[in-house]
């Protein structure tokens, strides 16, 4: 859960503007008191950015600098907006508009549409998949379920980057997007989808932003009305702004400078949706007089967790990496992150469940534990393992708490009981508020003891139990509270989407976990092909995967466990390897790098004017350290029966490339590289010529002839296997004589 729900649930409202600043650190106070002009807050994970900006708004309101109705705070999720409204209410700054971009734009569009266009706003379709499927069918393109989802994503990306259908192929190629179908097909589907919407008089979520931009841009009177209403703007998670959202923000702000943005380029993980950190990184260029504040004091995580987070980004590359923030933990020391390698996925899930059960037994609440994975498809095995271990859990990303059927029914029952008051026989002789709530919940089949096992019954029980616990917290904060008071509180929380804590281990993806935190976090499935994901090929995509792992690490307050498995199923081949992002971080990982064994300790004597003669050292297994004598093992730099670091996808690409290259040369495949050499390359995944040349079987000739192709394949790039130049057969013959097979 977030820091807000870990603090006192019902804090006292500060009694003055100065009291709003109490408890802020020097940098947070700088943010809170910078009320005029452009302000850029570079805030690392766990540094209290939401605290800083909500206190800034509250201080501005309480000091009289801001009128509540003149402030518009925007963020990216309804949950984040709801949390912001909840915090502002607790600080005595009710009435401030805190919304998502889409919610704020839709509100304005509904208000101005009759004046700008006439009539009612077209109906909003919440899910566009069905209409995209119909558009594809009209284009005579058959899409399976995954392709339909991906094509829909491409349409959404096009719209937020302001790309029209006919420009999609060129724009996608320029952005390096891997289209799920032929770009020309997607372009036709996109155009047909837009035509279907026009024919039926409906709009989608992206249209809300586009139409709002159009109305404000074309009607100066409407633009002036918006700007006279909102004079102060705050944008959270600014690194996730898309070009279309930035365009709308520019129109809102106009030529005024009262804009405060908050973000962290190292947490940019939504570029596939059109988000870009460029607006954050360019903010000081666009606003030379901006106040810039960096928040690097991490209040969330222990030094051990923070050190690992800093380590994950230490080897990052690209523009975002150039602006990374080195975090400094403000908490006491805790346990070291735990790294565990398992034989297979079920063993990893069972081991994780056992460790979670032990944590709960030691006193860590189940609601303060999370399992985070890269893809939602990974959740099933963990759901089963937790159920078998008798550990309650919840899948995050489902419907919102106050929208659950059982919660709506329970709140309605509580409202009815509060309305009837003393005339309700159910509450006769029950004075204490928590007992009244439990009595009402019992009419919804709630019991103090949970049902056995997992599933829908357990989920329902957890939801109702959360309401019972909330009543206990409420009466502790307000001793004379009545059932009517509690119902009013629930209504306010529902409006703000400020849900109570549900007791159960959270299972969710790394993307969905952003903005959340737990006492204990288990990062699972950290293998090559999953972290980074197999379809991340470009440098930019790989770096975004690294940032995603960083986000996962920084969700943990105290306990952090990282794990991976060598095989998918029990008894399967142990061909997987741990994520490259853990190299140099997990114990012993540095020694597993090719060429690292024996480095720096070769001895030898150097005399002036004489060449250095290095002492030959025995080849040792890079896994277990045993001296190697077999030629094949020496080529692999490991024992045959030691675990391999094989990147299966890379090996398959190398194998296909070798076959094509050998065919072009008219020679057997081993004349390009032998099987053992190819396997050694796939395990080493060399990043430069030096590392490639250190692999036995890659001589000077082959390095010059095939090195560029091999390094490109190792980097995830496509390589065309064209016929060699004239004389290739003769060169191959000479090469075959010089480099005989094993």
Sum up the structure in keywords.
742 residues, 46% helix, six-stranded parallel β-sheet, alpha/beta, 9% strand
Write the layout of secondary structure elements.
Elements: H1 3-6, H2 17-20, H3 26-33, E1 39-43, H4 49-62, E2 71-75, H5 78-90, E3 97-100, H6 101-116, E4 123-124, H7 129-138, H8 145-160, H9 168-175, H10 183-200, E5 202-203, H11 205-218, H12 220-229, E6 232-235, H13 243-253, E7 259-263, H14 278-281, H15 283-286, E8 291-295, E9 297-298, H16 303-314, H17 319-322, E10 328-329, E11 338-342, H18 345-361, E12 369-373, H19 379-388, E13 393-395, H20 405-420, H21 433-442, H22 456-477, H23 483-496, E14 505-509, H24 510-513, E15 518-523, H25 539-553, E16 556-565, H26 631-636, H27 648-665, H28 675-684, H29 689-693, H30 700-714, H31 728-738
Parallel strand pairs: 1-7, 1-8, 2-3, 2-6, 4-5, 6-7, 9-10, 11-16, 12-14, 12-15, 13-14, 15-16
């Amino acid at each position: 859960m977030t820091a807000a729900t870990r603090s006192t649930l019902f804090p006292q409202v500060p009694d003055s503007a100065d009291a709003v600043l109490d408890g802020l650190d020097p940098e947070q106070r700088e943010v809170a008191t910078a009320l005029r002009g452009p302000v850029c807050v570079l805030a690392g994970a766990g540094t209290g950015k939401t605290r800083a900006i909500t206190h800034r708004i509250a201080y501005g309101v309480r000091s009289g600098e801001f009128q509540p109705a003149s402030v518009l705070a925007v963020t990216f999720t309804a949950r984040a907006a709801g949390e912001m409204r909840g915090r502002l209410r607790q600080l005595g700054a009710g009435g401030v508009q805190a919304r998502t971009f889409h919610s704020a734009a839709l509100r304005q569009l509904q208000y101005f549409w009759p004046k700008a266009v006439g009539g009612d706003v077209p109906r909003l379709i919440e899910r566009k998949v069905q209409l995209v499927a119909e558009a594809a069918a009209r284009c005579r393109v058959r899409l399976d379920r995954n392709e339909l989802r991906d094509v829909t994503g491409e349409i959404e990306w096009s719209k937020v980057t302001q790309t029209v259908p006919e420009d999609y192929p060129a724009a996608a190629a320029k952005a390096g997007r891997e289209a799920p179908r032929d770009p020309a097909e997607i372009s036709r589907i996109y155009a047909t989808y837009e035509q279907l919407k026009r024919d039926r008089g409906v709009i989608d979520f992206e249209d809300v932003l586009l139409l709002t931009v159009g109305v404000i841009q074309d009607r100066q009177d409407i633009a002036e009305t918006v700007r006279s209403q909102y004079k102060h703007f705050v944008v959270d998670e600014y690194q996730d702004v898309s070009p279309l959202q930035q365009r709308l923000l520019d129109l809102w702000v106009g030529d005024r400078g009262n804009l405060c943005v908050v973000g962290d380029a190292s947490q940019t993980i939504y570029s596939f949706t059109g988000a870009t950190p460029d607006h954050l990184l360019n903010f000081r260029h666009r606003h030379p007089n901006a106040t810039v504040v960096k928040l690097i004091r991490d209040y969330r995580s222990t030094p051990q967790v923070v050190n690992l987070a800093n380590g994950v980004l230490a080897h990052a590359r690209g523009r975002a990496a150039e602006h990374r923030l080195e975090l400094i933990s403000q908490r006491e020391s805790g346990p070291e992150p735990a790294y565990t390698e398992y034989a297979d996925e079920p063993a990893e899930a069972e081991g994780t469940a056992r460790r979670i059960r032990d944590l709960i037994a030691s006193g860590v609440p189940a609601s303060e534990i999370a399992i985070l994975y890269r893809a939602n498809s990974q959740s099933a095995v963990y759901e089963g393992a937790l159920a078998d271990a008798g550990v309650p859990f919840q899948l995050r990303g489902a419907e919102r708490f106050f929208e659950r059927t059982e919660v709506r029914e329970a709140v309605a029952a509580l409202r009815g009981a509060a309305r009837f008051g003393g005339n309700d026989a159910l509450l006769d002789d029950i004075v204490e508020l928590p007992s009244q709530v439990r009595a009402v919940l019992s009419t919804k089949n709630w019991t103090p003891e949970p049902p056995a096992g997992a599933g829908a019954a357990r989920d329902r029980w957890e939801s109702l139990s959360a309401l019972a616990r909330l009543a206990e917290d409420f009466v502790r904060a307000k001793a004379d509270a009545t059932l009517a008071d509690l119902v009013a509180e629930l209504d306010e929380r529902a409006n703000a989407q400020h849900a109570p804590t549900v007791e159960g281990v959270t299972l969710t993806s790394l993307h969905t976990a952003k903005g959340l935190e737990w006492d204990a976090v288990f990062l699972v499935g950290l293998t090559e092909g999953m972290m980074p994901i197999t379809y991340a090929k470009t440098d930019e995509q790989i770096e975004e995967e690294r940032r995603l792992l960083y986000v996962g690490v920084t969700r943990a307050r105290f306990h952090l466990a990282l794990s991976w498995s060598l095989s998918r199923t029990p008894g399967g081949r142990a061909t997987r390897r741990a994520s490259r992002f853990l190299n140099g971080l997990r114990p012993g990982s540095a020694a597993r790098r090719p060429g690292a064994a024996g480095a720096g300790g070769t001895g030898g004597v150097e005399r002036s004017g004489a060449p250095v003669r290095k002492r030959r050292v025995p080849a040792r297994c890079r896994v277990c350290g045993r001296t190697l004598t077999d030629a094949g093992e020496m080529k692999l730099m490991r024992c045959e029966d030691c675990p391999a670091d094989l990147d299966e996808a890379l090996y398959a690409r190398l194998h296909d490339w070798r076959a094509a290259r050998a065919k072009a040369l008219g020679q057997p495949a081993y004349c390009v590289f032998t099987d053992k050499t190819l396997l050694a390359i796939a395990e080493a995944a060399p990043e430069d010529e030096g590392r490639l040349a250190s692999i036995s079987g890659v001589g000077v000739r082959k390095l010059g002839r095939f090195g560029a192709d091999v390094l490109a394949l190792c980097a995830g790039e496509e390589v065309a296997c064209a016929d060699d130049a004239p004389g290739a057969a003769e060169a191959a013959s000479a090469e075959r004589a010089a480099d005989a097979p094993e």
